[in-house]
Automatic annotation (TrEMBL):
Keywords: Signal. The keyword Signal applies. Residues 1-22 form the signal peptide. Residues 35-179, 183-348 form the FAS1 domain. InterPro entries: Adhesion/Biosynth-related, FAS1_dom_sf, FAS1_domain. Pfam families: Fasciclin. This is Fasciclin domain-containing protein. The keyword Thylakoid does not apply.
């Protein structure tokens, strides 16, 4: 249904022969004048021109001038640029119905001002026009300085760079990232993408593949084929990594965070709400621990950057033994019905470190 995401990722690999011009920032409504309807407001703001083009192509633009009420979670042009979409005509390559459903995912059929979102609420669910749910985290009051509210809003791994833009028929938020949702399971998501085929084969070989379709929630940091190759693992060499000789939970299971749903922006939110930016938890089925943290520079509006690593509790003096970091926004926060997938650009544990003794 949401095949437009895959198309966007293909577009992102194409050489871009043009760049966007600079324009004024988002034009806020003048309170002395009448508020505009959602469709008109988006149409008249250049920074939202790509979202407007997508709405016009799918027929949603006119609907957004209806009575509503609506809450629009609108990715700015830069967010679409990260997916390789830089001009309105790029949308013509995408399936219209799939694109419409993706846009509806960004629209709530209710008026939701920030004041109505629970302060310090984490992953609060709200239904959207697509019949699904989005996850809102509102990091309001810092644990150490509650008298200085920060009111940072995160939605499905995106950050609201502008909040509470009042419309005649609702309210609008501007996001720094397109929300990526694909119906189905994590297993479906990985199986549909050839760039993760070696990782998929490894999970199957070590009896971990079935977990990807389990009910509940999980977070997967998935090394792509190039990351596996850099660690010396290819489809051919994988045959020698047998479960009899290697600890599968350590070598590949470390990337499967069961019963956890982590958007990368959860961690900057946790830093405000709880005073911590990361976690250290045991690898299921192994004696090692994994470490995970993520940060975001709000001032520069940079993408969230995660760092994934591992520790051996039996050798605490070593600390975190190896880490892999990434801030490639277009490859993270891929939501499915039973979890989230983040691209992993490297392996933190090499085969020789997972050999059975």
């Amino acid at each position: 249904m949401f095949t437009y995401i895959r198309s966007c990722m293909l577009l992102a690999l194409l050489p871009l022969a043009f760049t966007a011009c600079k324009h004024d920032e988002l034009v806020m409504p003048d309170q002395k004048e009448s508020y505009r309807l959602a469709g008109d407001f988006i149409k008249n703001n250049y920074d939202l021109s790509l979202f407007n083009a997508a709405m016009e192509y799918t027929g949603l633009a006119a609907e957004m001038n209806g009575p509503g009420p609506y809450t629009l979670l609108v990715p700015g042009n830069t967010a679409f640029n990260e997916l390789g979409i830089t001009r309105a005509s790029d949308f013509l390559r995408l399936n219209k119905d799939s694109l419409k459903a993706a846009l509806q995912y960004h629209i709530l059929t209710r008026r939701l001002p920030a004041s109505a979102i629970p302060a310090n609420g984490v992953d609060i669910r709200y239904g959207n026009m697509a019949g699904r749910e989005v996850y809102l985290t509102y990091a309001s009051f810092p644990v150490d300085y509650p008298q200085f509210p920060q009111n940072q809003l995160f939605i499905n791994g995106s950050y609201a760079v502008k909040k509470d833009v009042v419309l005649a028929n609702g309210v609008l938020y501007v996001l720094d990232k397109v929300m990526k949702y694909t119906p189905g399971t994590v297993q479906d998501w990985l199986a549909a993408r050839a760039e993760y085929s070696v990782f998929v084969a490894a999970l199957k070989q070590f009896g971990l593949w079935g977990d990807m379709s389990a009910a509940g929630s999980m977070t997967v940091f998935a090394p792509d084929n190039e990351a596996m190759k850099r660690a010396g693992i290819t489809m051919e060499s994988l045959k020698a990594l047998t479960p009899e000789r290697y600890i599968g939970a350590r070598l590949f299971g470390i990337y499967l965070l069961r019963n956890k749903r982590f958007f990368l922006t959860d961690f900057p939110a946790f830093a405000i709400i709880y005073g911590t930016t990361g976690v250290e938890l045991s690898i299921e089925g192994d004696v090692y621990n994994y470490t995970l943290n993520a940060t975001k520079n709000f001032g520069q509006l940079a993408p969230a950057e995660f760092t994934f690593g591992y520790k051996d509790p039996a050798r605490p003096v070593l600390g975190v033994i190896r880490t892999v970091s990434s801030n490639t926004s277009r490859l993270t926060d891929n939501l499915t019905d039973n979890g989230i997938v983040h691209d992993m650009p490297g392996l933190v544990i090499l085969p020789e470190e997972a050999q059975k003794k």
